[in-house]
Amino acid sequence: MEVSIIDTKAALGAEAARKGAMLISLALQEKGSANIILATGASQFEMLSELVKAGVDWSKVTVFHLDEYIGIPDTHPASFRKYLKERFVELVKPAAFHAINGENDPETECRRLGAIISEHQIDVAFVGIGENAHLAFNDPPANFQTTQPYIVVDLDLVCRQQQLGEGWFPSLEAVPERAISMSVKQIMKSKAIICTVPDARKSVAVQKAVEGEVVPEVPASILQTHPHAWLYLDQGSASLMKQE
Fold this sequence. Notes:
Elements: E1 2-6, H1 9-31, E2 34-38, H2 45-51, E3 61-65, E4 67-69, H3 80-92, E5 96-98, H4 106-117, E6 124-127, E7 150-154, H5 157-165, E8 178-182, H6 184-188, E9 192-197, H7 203-211, E10 229-234
Helix pairs in contact: 1-2
């Protein structure tokens, strides 16, 4: 895993988007199409705003996303389908967007999406790291073993508090307790991973994920084992790491 520490959140987002766009363009040159995974949440605002401006032929790019709450419609302010439609899909009009529908029966939806993504080699996965070090909605201890591409997960208290703190919900009680998440193994199948993690509130999780052991209790630590992963931090999120 290659770690870059960049002074500002805006510059971090621009650099992560530049690297990701370059990798997507390489895939397009090699095979004429590309498949990507997009993360959501406050940590991805700057990266996505730059990615949509990149010189990529999005009409040849198929998009998956990492997770979605169970039981909320795509009109809800916290819906990740809504987030990506407004910040990416409607702006660049990709070849396909395989949205997770949290209003469907969760197990059926997992099987539906699993069948689709199993037919696609993911070229670039854009991800983040949660305050509890989660990867997608794989809260600790994460299931590193399941081979199912999508799984139903319970959201722990720290994760739900993060969603409240970022302003997506009016109260903790309003934050769903379950979600559909892409599994760790499915994320790790990606040929390349771009991980964008700004803000000091992520510093403890980042330090454990980068410098600690690879363990399910720190889900994002699994990124240490990926041969082509790039982690982009700002001064806040990197503040607890050992720096030469």
